[in-house]
Design goal:
400 residues; alpha/beta; seven-stranded mixed beta sheet; 35% helix
Length: 400
């Protein structure tokens, strides 16, 4: 194996023992830039640990099993071929499980299988880029893991990993592309082109955000982000708020249809919770039946995307209080401005809401901000805006 600095640091971390003979680190968090060899090094570590320890169950997790197969499994298959004794392990394609001669296994998993999470018992887990994996899901997996937990990610946003990393039994291994002697030259040159220096400024390639995030592996905020400063609350806190709830909905057939609940405290605070994020074509039964199944109340105003009057009519026929959102010239930017003037919170389990919030951007062309949102990853945020701008007029909320 061509070991890197990242591999050696992880190897030392899992073998660190305190004076009482107890494992020093329960959580090993790999953070840093692109091309730093985090994924490859952890593949090496998994392979070596499985071969060196009998009857161990190792598993890799992403938010969906398909995504885990498309990324980590694909990389594993390429890497394992070059490792010693590869011919002695077997692979079950149906279950996505590698079995080693000593009865240890490595399996590919997704947190979209709730039954597997709650029935899981294992020795080592690796969470690969767990941006959409909730703290509750992590806790369920961690309490069922006997040896240690590996995590790798690029710190692009605030996450529960930040808190986990500060615990006494956690170690953070930070790395950049410079720590990887096997990083292809052209990829290294591309990353270096982002560094804000005189040469890159003259070449027009310098980019502070790209350099901090992908070059230095640091958490960096995109300068063209639309929403900033939103806070998080628990679902229990949201449920206990003594305010009326309203709904916003954005329709999508191939893109996700989204439903968000919104509460207003009567002063300057909105609270949001994600109820639905799924394309209509993937639903069983009618849209109305799906809303009923997730507990959307029919007596509460449901502010819907007015671009689809047919679906609004279907919901109204089914008894929902579906109301078309008011649109018009400048309504999107007006709504964004109103929301940004208020204090906003969302439930920490609203993972798609969080993803869109972190990635919702103004369109920039040749360095010029066009004050026009990029039409991408905006489904639940559109639903949120429909509801909040409706409440602005319905409740007579003054913009702060």
């Amino acid at each position: 194996m061509k070991a890197t600095i990242v591999f050696q640091k992880n190897y030392d971390a899992i073998n660190a023992i305190d004076v009482n003979g107890i494992r020093t680190y329960r959580h090993i968090v790999n953070t840093g830039s692109s091309r730093s060899s985090k994924t490859y090094s952890l593949i090496q570590l998994f392979y070596l640990y499985a071969f060196s320890n009998k009857n161990k169950r190792l598993s890799v997790w992403r938010d969906t099993k398909k995504d885990c197969k498309d990324t980590v499994l694909a990389d594993m298959k390429k890497a394992f071929i070059d490792f010693e004794n590869y011919e002695s392990i077997t692979f079950n394609k149906t279950e996505s499980i590698f079995t080693f001669p000593n009865n240890s296994t490595i399996e590919i998993c997704g947190t979209d299988d709730e039954e597997k999470i709650h029935g899981f018992q294992g020795d080592v887990i690796w969470l690969n880029e767990p941006y959409k994996i909730s703290k509750d899901t992590f806790d369920q997996l961690s309490m069922r893991t006997s040896d240690f937990v590996l995590i790798d990610w690029n710190p692009k946003k605030t996450h529960w990993i930040d808190t986990l990393s500060k615990q006494d039994n956690s170690i953070v291994i930070h790395s950049t592309f410079k720590d990887n002697p096997f990083c292809p030259l052209e990829q290294k040159k591309k990353i270096l082109s982002y560094e804000p220096n005189d040469y890159n400024n003259a070449q027009g390639t310098a980019d502070k955000f790209m350099w901090e995030c992908y070059g230095l592996g640091l958490k960096a905020e995109k300068p063209n982000r639309i929403y900033k400063g939103f806070g998080t609350i628990t679902k229990e806190f949201y449920d206990g708020l003594p305010y009326n709830e309203y709904y916003g909905m954005d329709f999508g057939s191939t893109n996700p249809s989204s439903v968000v609940g919104v509460k207003f405290n009567g002063e300057n605070e909105f609270y949001s919770h994600e109820y639905l994020y799924k394309p209509i074509r993937e639903m069983f039964g009618t849209l109305a039946e799906n809303l009923e199944a997730i507990g959307i109340r029919k007596d509460i105003p449901l502010i819907c995307d007015s671009a689809d009057p047919t679906r609004i009519g279907e919901l109204q026929m089914a008894g929902f209080n579906a109301i078309p959102a008011v649109k018009g010239q400048g309504s999107v930017n007006q709504g964004i401005g109103f929301i940004n003037s208020m204090r906003n919170f969302y439930t920490e389990c609203s993972l798609n809401y969080e993803h869109e919030y972190e990635n919702y951007e103004w369109e920039v062309v040749n360095g010029v901000n066009l004050d026009r949102p990029i039409k991408k990853d905006d489904h639940i945020l559109d639903a949120d805006r429909y509801c909040k701008t409706f409440l602005q007029f319905y409740l007579g909320i003054n913009q702060k």
